[in-house]
Design goal:
10 strands; 193 residues; alpha+beta
């Protein structure tokens, strides 16, 4: 599936990003605690439903960062691209460097009931702007589906699976954020665009 959006879907993403951004600011989500309330999105998302990852055009061959996880899993972040629509798309490759198949932890989905209803995903990922003390959660559509790769239950030994996650964009002056994904080490990444 293509990462390109129709004009109507792009307007929906802008409205959703504004709603989520306001919710993040009003809720004062900062401090990095696990008990922080998470914002609810209130606008429609793209028609693709956030279920498939595709390599982004112009994606760099060198990863921005590499995170180690359990069972030989490695997440290589290939790009973190700011879009004019007001969101950031993180494209990554999840690789199993282990000698046996790795079953993905349900913790990757996060602990929000709304997202958990939609099955295994990367909905637990966050971007943290430590200077502004703000945390950005994975965007979701009006049905609560996270705008991230969904349905990946396991990764076979030696296999690589492309994944993506979309977040509301931090302010234009913010170019570095901490990327966090449950069960993986945190890492600082640079946002381009």
């Amino acid at each position: 599936m293509s990462m390109r959006f129709t004009a109507k879907a792009r307007r929906g993403m802008v409205a959703m990003t504004i709603a989520v951004g306001l919710a993040v600011g009003v809720a004062g989500c900062g401090g990095g605690g696990t008990d922080d309330k998470k914002p609810e999105a209130s606008a429609s998302a793209s028609e693709r439903g956030g279920s498939q990852a595709t390599p982004q055009e112009g994606q760099s061959a060198q990863p921005l960062a590499e995170l180690r996880g359990p069972d030989g899993l490695t997440l290589k972040i290939m790009s973190a691209q700011r879009d004019s629509g007001g969101f950031v798309t993180v494209n990554a490759q999840l690789k199993n460097d282990g000698s046996k198949d790795a079953v993905l932890s349900s913790q990757l989905t996060g602990n929000e009931t709304e997202i958990m209803k939609n099955g295994q995903s990367f909905g637990g990922a966050t971007l943290v702007d430590s200077k502004a003390k703000k945390r950005y959660y994975v965007l979701r559509d009006t049905d609560g589906r996270p705008l991230t790769t969904i349905g990946v239950q396991s990764v076979r030994a030696g296999d690589t699976v492309p994944v993506f996650m979309q977040f509301p964009a931090p302010p234009a002056g913010t170019t570095e954020v901490s990327f966090q994904l449950p069960t993986f080490a945190s890492v600082t990444i640079k946002i381009s665009g």
